[in-house]
């Protein structure tokens, strides 16, 4: 851009430095910050910080005070406001990332449930097919009853006198002749 280009606003000529931070890295930092702000250590630390600040600026001589009570602790108020103004968006960012992760996890769970349902239905069909096929297969009780019947027949045959087929043929020939 030329220096004498008066139709372009000056502010658009300036460029902010490019900060090389990925959204993922920034998001992880925001989550870490939000997680830290919810810890008892942070709450106790912040309470101690504020208590020391108030005691220092209330009880010590005015020459040592840097945020006097007479000015309603203006500096402490500004520091806490600044901390809150950064904390709120970072907590919301962390919450949004958590919601996105939950949404993705829910989708994976739904897909897994669909696969499990399909597998269960397939297995139910296979079990039903096996039951139908088992009706056509001889059961142990059926085979035992058939073997008992055969054994009875063999025992009955064993009780009858065995006729020699060769002799019975001759005796029939002898009777004829």
TrEMBL record:
Coiled-coil blocks: none
KW Glycoprotein (keyword) present: no
Biased composition (Basic and acidic residues): 157-170
Entry keyword set: Membrane, Transmembrane, Transmembrane helix
Region Disordered: start-end pairs: 157-177
Segments crossing the lipid bilayer: 36-56, 71-93
UniProt key word Transmembrane helix: yes
InterPro entries membership: DUF1003
Domain of life, per lineage: Bacteria
The protein's name: DUF1003 domain-containing protein
Organism: Brevibacterium aurantiacum
């Amino acid at each position: 851009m030329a220096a004498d280009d008066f139709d372009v606003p000056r502010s658009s000529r300036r460029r902010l430095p490019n900060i090389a931070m990925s959204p993922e890295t920034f998001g992880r930092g925001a989550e870490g910050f939000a997680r830290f702000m919810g810890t008892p250590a942070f709450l106790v630390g912040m309470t101690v910080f504020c208590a020391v600040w108030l005691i220092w600026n209330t009880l010590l001589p005015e020459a040592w005070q840097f945020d006097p009570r007479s000015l309603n602790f203006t500096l402490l108020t500004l520091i806490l406001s600044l901390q809150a103004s950064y904390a709120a968006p970072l907590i919301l960012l962390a919450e949004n990332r958590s919601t996105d992760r939950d949404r993705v996890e829910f989708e994976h769970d739904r897909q897994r449930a669909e696969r499990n349902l399909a597998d269960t239905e397939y297995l139910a069909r296979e079990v039903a097919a096996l039951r139908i096929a088992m009706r056509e297969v001889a059961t142990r009780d059926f085979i035992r009853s058939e073997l008992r019947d055969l054994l009875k027949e063999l025992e009955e045959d064993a009780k009858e006198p065995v006729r020699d087929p060769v002799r019975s043929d001759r005796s029939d020939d002898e009777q004829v002749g």
